[in-house]
Here is the input.
Amino acid sequence: MKRTLSVLLLLALVLLQMPAQGSKEGPSAAPKRYSIGTSSSGGNFYLIGGGLATILNNALPGQFVFTSEETGGSTANLAMIEGGEAEIGFAMTSALYEGAKGIAKWTNGKPMTKVLGLVPLYPSYMTMYTLTSSPVKSLSDYNGRIVGLGSKGAAMDSVLRAVFTNMGIVPSSIFNDGHGATATAVSQGQVDVAVLFSYPPFASITELEATRSLRFIGLTPKEQKYLTDTYPFYSAAVMPKGSYVGATSDVPTISEWNMLVVSADLSVDEVYLIAKTLFEKNPELLAVHNSLKYATGDNAANFNIPLHPGVIKYLKEKGIAVDARLVP
Here is the structure.
């Protein structure tokens, strides 16, 4: 009888301990799954997004599972984060500006409330290209031409449509599609000139140059000044000679930053860990794309929206000053 009672007591103790053990191995211990919104295939966001997901998954096994998602680009990523469909995404500062103010059509008049800065990525040049056989040689030549402006509703699309109207430029039509599809349309003569923001070499352009000869169109000083005076996220820049085969001389243009942003729903500790990993894996980032040499803590000052508190925690640990405008 005593032996039976002892066995029952032992069994009871084991059963009491099982829920605690199960909680360590159950849902609370499962890695958190987060989506990274990128762009259409053929774009730098798409290429870099896969690389970042790999770096994070390798560095933080068991804690997170990051997946890179093909999307419509900046504005689609911001909308997905706002709607809880993605946790991290790529966005250009023009889209962040529009989203923060709720002034573009894609925002439906509602300023973003959940998107915060994570890691600065790289500046990109406004790159305008056409076939060398095309008569298009300047911005004013866009009159009566078919102009490719990337995905419909993206920040560049909405901004440049307004620019054309204000500058009296009237294209015959606007072609809206991903950068790869736009490059193909240029090669087939369906689009007269394409515009995109990119850091060279951009895959879709270099692939096109393998079979077609391209001309790269620059801006006049007056056009640069108009764009930088009107839009605070643009800066005057020069795309260096040799960036592409057809760039036989420096190309005067404008630039803006590309950023990695994150949902405010993620905790301080989670974002601190993600930011720390990316900032401190710079050699691995460079293996993904050379442009990521700019992905440093000091360049966080180029954000035009507040940073996530987890990022601020990391920057302060490293002695990097955080401007008051970047504190949410």
In short: The chain is about 40% helix and 20% strand. Strands lie at 32-37, 64-69, 88-92, 115-131, 146-148, 173-175, 193-198, 214-216, 235-239, 251-263. The CA atoms of residues 117 and 307 lie 4 Å apart.
